[in-house]
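REQUEST FORM: STRUCTURE PREDICTION
Request ID: SP-0412
Submitted by: Lab K.M.
Chain count: 1
Length (residues): 252
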Amino acid sequence: MSLPSPSKDWPYPYWIAHRGAGTLAPENTLAAFRLGAQFGYRMFECDAKLSADDQLFLLHDSTLERTTNGQGAAADLRWDALSRLDAGGWHSGTYAGEPPPSLDAVARFCLRNGYALNIEIKPTPGSEARTGAQVARAAAHLWQSQAQQPLLTSFQPEALAAARSAHRQATLGLLLDQLPTHWLDTARQLACAAVVCQHSLWNADTVAAARGAGLRLLAYTVNDLATVQRLQALGLDGLITDRVDVFSPHAG
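STATUS: Completed
RESULT:
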């Protein structure tokens, strides 16, 4: 199903593949990125956190059990141990043995193929500032010669503040699963370019408020046609989806 993009001057593709390819492949793996690309996606969302020896790698949860064959807190393991885990077998036998990738490997994949990236800064609790700064420094280094920088997002204002301090030119987005009283003030104070909301939070009033603050508007995780059509009618700038097999990005 091919749907039009309403935004022409935002530098990122309209359609963004959630964690690589949604649920069709093991999330936050290079296998998922490759599958999302096969469906035509040119921008991917992923989650980045720090290992015990400060290496950035892709994982959503603070613990390892759900998406790897490891146990315990991911932040307690060094990268050499994390890199040997199976991050694909939980999904299906097809992906058994797929390792968790480093952020560096994901960056190389995206840069080599001309894909855009949304890196969600996903700190283990207590490491918000350190993770935000590390992600921002990595983005500044890896994309240093690129016109299009990755979009760095987080639910944690502390992580975004540290990212801004570490990389003054970073493109930041505030992630929200609810709307606290001062959500727009927070986005402004962090010099965010975008707000990325749980899709049901966007309505005519919240769109008008965010537009009035000069912000771009994105939504997650958008998986059905009725929601897509509602958000497009509101004029959003980007949609993050699991349904890479349903929504074609070619027109976006």
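NOTES: Confidence is low (pLDDT under 50) at residues 1-6.
Reviewed by: T.R.
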